Amino acid sequence: MTFNDAKDICFKRGGSLLEISDEIENNYITRRLLFDERYWIGAKRIMHYSSIFLYTNGKNM
């Protein structure tokens, strides 16, 4: 599944991709990933080889 596929599925279900807003959310997702769960987050690199990501709402990660 691509980023855009995941974004479209969330939108069609009335939701959006995950945008982590604080340390508590980050820790929760980190713990869930230990159980091999997978999540798409709403963030993309600003350029192909960049190490800088922005959330889809334009905010910095």
From TrEMBL:
<dbReference type="InterPro" id="IPR001304">
    <property type="entry name" value="C-type_lectin-like"/>
</dbReference>
<dbReference type="Pfam" id="PF00059">
    <property type="entry name" value="Lectin_C"/>
</dbReference>
<dbReference type="InterPro" id="IPR016186">
    <property type="entry name" value="C-type_lectin-like/link_sf"/>
</dbReference>
<protein>
    <recommendedName>
        <fullName>C-type lectin domain-containing protein</fullName>
    </recommendedName>
</protein>
<dbReference type="InterPro" id="IPR016187">
    <property type="entry name" value="CTDL_fold"/>
</dbReference>
<feature type="domain" description="C-type lectin">
    <location>
        <begin position="1"/>
        <end position="44"/>
    </location>
</feature>
